Amino acid sequence: MGSRYGQFCPVAKAMELLDERWTLLVIRELVCGSRHFNELRRGVPRMSPALLSKRLQRLIRAGLVERRPRGNRVDYVLTEAGRELQPIVDALGTWGTRWIGELGDEDLDPHLLLWDMHRNVDHAVVPGGRAVVWFVFTDAAVPNREWWLVITPDEVDVCDSDPGYPVTVGVETTLRRLVEIWRGDVDWAAAVRAGEVVLDGPPSIRRTLPGWFTLSAYAGVPRTGRATVRLA
Fold first, then answer.
1. Percentages helix, strand, coil for the chain, rounded to the nearest 5?
2. Which residues form the HTH hxlR-type domain (predicted)?
3. For residue 166, how far is the Cα from the chain centroid?
4. In angstroms, rounded to a whole number, what is the distance separating the alpha carbons of residues 185 and 220?
């Protein structure tokens, strides 16, 4: 149960449900298309499974999420009330992009970055068959240094261990720089020219690789020229 504000204001009543830790991020994942428990977990990798289950049950009881058994799996789907939160999530993302530019080291999560990238692949421009992108983050600790995206015409898999397929193209950079590229703070081509991103693969693949990804939904948000909001 969230905080009780004791106010009739509809903003206060909405926040009694939505201000619990992780709740809006779970809704963000559902808005972005995650439907299964394990998909939701990968979108909020620092959230415990027990807490995720608790938040989902709370959202189901509140009427924002519907639980739909499907064979051996369960789908979690936003209801009409839940879908009405999408413009709120989008507005928060836009506002955060425009006004909060501060990124601490604790905000840089390779799992979350690759999970976001995997659902923004433009299959129409990826070479046919199987394409494997190998990422090496030079500033990450060894367990999180190497990641792979395995792209086929039908799906994209995120791997934190070598999937065993031939690598189509390698990307060596810092985690911070690729996050900045993904957020739209830094241009990919400019980072390559500056030597901040090193690509290893055939010239045609190196040239087209940035177009394989549509970038974050907020990458095109204009940044403000004013001082950014400071986080406590």
1. 45, 15, 40
2. 9-104
3. 26
4. 9
C-alpha to C-alpha distance for 213 and 139, rounded to whole angstroms: 23
Joined tokens for residue 160 = 């934190």
* Beta strand 131-137 pairing with 169-173: parallel
Q: Of the candidates 122, 138, 217, which has an alpha carbon nearest to the alpha carbon of residue 171?
A: 138
Q: Six-digit token pair at 16?
A: 């009694």
**93-143 pLDDT per residue, tens:** 999 988 887 788 888 999 999 999 999 999 999 998 999 999 999 999 888
Set out the domains of the chain in order of their start, with CATH numbers: 10-99 (1.10.10.10), 105-212 (3.30.1050.10)
CA distance 169 to 63: 45
Is the pTM higher than 0.85? yes
Q: pLDDT tens, 178-187?
A: 999 999 889 9
> In degrees rounded to 5, what are phi and psi of residue 223?
-85, 150
Confidence band (pLDDT; 50, 70, 90) for 227? low
